[in-house]
Amino acid sequence: MRQVFLDTETTGLYASQGDRVIEIGCVELVNRKLTGNNLHFYVNPGRDSHEEALKVHGITTEFLRDKPPFAHIAGDLLAYLKDAEVIIHNAAFDVGFLDVELALAQHDALRTHVLGIVDTLVMAKAMFPGKRNSLDALCDRLGVDNSGRALHGALLDAELLADVYINLTRGQDALLMDVGDASNAALKRVKADLSKLELPVILANDTELTAHDDVLRQIDKSSGGKTLWHKAA
Q: What pTM, to 2 d.p., does this model score?
């Protein structure tokens, strides 16, 4: 499955009041593995950022002056996102801004171009009810290193979100192994008598047992206590 983690920075909080997108960052995962095929744009919004927004992202009007307007990069963005599952933290905010920008550029809404949109804020609230579920809070809770996040940046935040998502969903299929396409392999059946074969038993040492227990606790925590061994205990 192809998934794209997306984040935006904007001139302010309200697209309906004329605020615009100034940065877009996208990070691609295929089968839960980073591909390095990322996408990043700075966008000239044609207006200044609000003072409070500027404190968050630090992207000045002067820096954006020679950057392309959204209409010039819209086609490349949609081609990149086509048929992907797009994952966003607080999706209503980013999708709302992107839909306004797309409409101004004479394009249909984002949902018509992608396979689907997943909101990790909704996921986190279901898993950690009553707790802070900002991206920074989730990084702290899930052990994701966000020490390089002095200011918000769309590409960095998309990269952090990808790491957070993998940790949020690690109980689903993180333990599956990719064995390739067996239908394309030249496989032969070989009969062998293994009845007299004695396999050595290698026991885990204390360090390995502790690490194993730690992984089980993390998986159980990520699943909200729904693991089978938790229910059987």
A: 0.72
